[in-house]
Write a structure and sequence with these properties.
The protein has about 350 residues and is of the alpha/beta class. The protein has twelve helices and 13 strands. It has two domains: about 80 residues, no CATH class; about 230 residues, Rossmann fold (3-Layer(aba) Sandwich). It has an eleven-stranded mixed β-sheet. Strands 2-6 form a two-stranded antiparallel sheet.
């Protein structure tokens, strides 16, 4: 388990080590006698078979089904003085719960529910989508020891596997235990699975040769998105490269123009649903947190060098409205892809999904 040397305690920053058999026995005895708690204050009532602790011995991190639980509020403590006041925010819990309970479970057709809800799965569109996935590889190192995938989810597309094909390890970072279980199933020993918060990566500085973060940052609370990207850059080694795929949403002028009537219809539909729910004394619940900043926000606040190029210039809504197999949809998508390749900066700035590209000197 040579990879433990690159990890650190997400609370104290201390180096981590494997628990001894005697320590595990002692921890389980404390759990059975009611003298062990999660750092969020919940009593720990189950036993553990493996785990890590800091060299300072302050906090204990169980390993469950080869997934290391490195969330601050899931750390185990044997004293109430060690409890933490700051726990996972409601917005992050919303994301965690969605993907544990729905997103990374498969439908009857065999697709993950996340893709079924948010992607275009029509056969004629698959070539275009795959080529957009393949684009990411152009901006990454071809090989290395550690590739970080934050948040990895369930590695739902086979195309995603290429990014770490020639790396020794893929460090899969996510809030969803279900998603990480799928990563472990697909990658085996190549996957180092960390259940953790990507705004507080429990990974030491300058250890990764690459990172990807695909369609994730905008699900992080708006005031923490810069921190999440900065954390990824922090753990990148000299010469390392990384890619963040983002979504401009309402800040994409091309999508605003082309989808104006549909977005207006959706706006009034949502407003009407809220008014109707309010009249009945109910408020519709959120499915998943989402917030998209504009380019100027990142230009002003992201204090690390980056290049902006195109991942995909059109949204799923655009594709489902304008691209159809019976209306030369595949040819239209082929032309879009060619335009994106010829004008990557312009399409990244004006289209739907940009790629932030990083290289640490």
């Amino acid at each position: 388990m040579d990879w433990i040397s690159i990890l650190k305690c997400p609370v104290t920053g201390a180096n981590l080590r494997i628990l001894t058999d005697n320590e595990i026995t002692e921890i389980n005895n404390k759990a059975n006698s009611g003298n062990l708690w999660q750092a969020d204050g919940k009593p720990m009532q189950s036993t553990i078979t493996n785990g890590l602790t800091g060299l300072d011995g302050m906090y204990i991190y169980p390993i469950v089904n080869e997934i290391v639980l490195l969330l601050r509020d899931l750390a185990l403590v044997d004293s109430k003085e060690k409890l933490l006041n700051d726990v996972l925010s409601d917005d992050k819990k919303l994301v965690k719960d969605f993907y544990d309970n729905r997103g990374w479970h498969t439908t009857e057709k065999g697709d993950y529910e996340d893709a079924d809800i948010f992607e275009d799965l029509r056969p004629f569109a698959q070539e275009y989508i795959k080529k957009c996935h393949d684009r990411v590889s152009r901006y990454l190192n071809k090989s290395g020891t550690y590739m970080i995938d934050a948040a990895s989810g369930a590695l739902q597309y086979p195309d995603y596997l290429q990014y770490s094909e020639n790396y020794k390890y893929r460090i899969c970072v996510d809030l969803s235990f279900q998603g990480l279980s799928e990563c472990k199933r697909k990658l085996g020993d190549k996957a180092l699975c960390l259940l953790c918060d990507m705004t507080n990566l429990p990974i030491k500085d300058n250890v990764a040769d690459g990172f990807v973060s695909l369609n994730t940052i905008y699900h992080i609370p708006k005031d923490e998105q810069i921190k999440a990207i900065t954390e990824l850059y922090r753990v990148l080694n000299s010469g390392g490269k990384g890619v963040v795929v983002y979504d401009w949403y309402k800040h994409s002028p091309w999508m605003n123009i082309s989808l104006l009537p549909f977005r207006a219809f959706k706006y009034f539909k949502v407003k009407s649903a809220k008014l109707f729910a309010g009249a009945k004394g109910k408020q519709p619940g959120k499915m998943l947190y989402f917030y998209a900043h504009n380019y100027e926000y990142f230009k002003k606040n992201l204090k690390i060098p980056f290049k902006l190029v195109c991942w995909r210039s059109v949204s799923v809504t655009f594709m489902k409205v304008y691209a159809h197999s019976w209306l030369f949809g595949k040819k239209m998508l082929d032309k879009l892809y060619k335009m994106e390749d010829e004008q990557p900066e312009k399409c990244g700035l004006k289209g739907e999904y940009p790629m932030f590209v990083f290289e640490k000197k």
